[in-house]
Amino acid sequence: MSTIVQIEDLTTGVARRDYWKKRIELSEAIRPHWTSLVAEVDNRVVGFIFGRAGELEFGLPGTVAWIEIIGVHPGYRRRGIAAQLIEDFTSSAHDHGIRTIFTLVSKGNEEMERFFTKLGFAQGKMLHFQKE
Ligand SMILES: CC(C)(COP(=O)(O)OP(=O)(O)OC[C@H]1O[C@@H](n2cnc3c(N)ncnc32)[C@H](O)[C@@H]1OP(=O)(O)O)[C@@H](O)C(=O)NCCC(=O)NCCS
Hints:
This protein is of the alpha+beta class. Helices cover 37% and strands 24% of the residues. It is globular and about 40 Å long.
């Protein structure tokens, strides 16, 4: 857990130790276990992906696998680690009969937009609404 907190802290400047403690417990308890993965280099965690599977949500037919958060340690980026995490996530989804992967990216986050585009993701047909 501490490595995930550290990767997020290095990326966003926010360390959410309590959040991650609860998030990992939740993943272990109710999320399909293939939706949470870590990447290791020399026995050290350097990347992670957390997601979930959602059935018949938002009026969508069937089941969709959601990528909720992905992160790679800044010292290990641009080596294909995140691409491998997404590939493993996608292939597990496929093994569970799920053919659609969703994620959300903030408008203007060009890094994430380029990353997902490179990996074959395209803008979807859902509209994101919100109310403050
Ligand atoms: C986006 C992120 C996951 C990519 O991880 P990574 O392991 O470096 O990605 P990969 O090496 O697998 O990159 C695959 C392709 O995506 C694209 N890509 C990756 N990072 C990119 C960037 N910063 N800008 C533009 N394109 C990028 C490239 O096309 C890359 O292929 P290439 O290196 O052959 O050109 C990583 O930069 C990260 O963790 N960023 C912060 C994400 C974040 O805010 N997460 C929430 C908090 S932790």
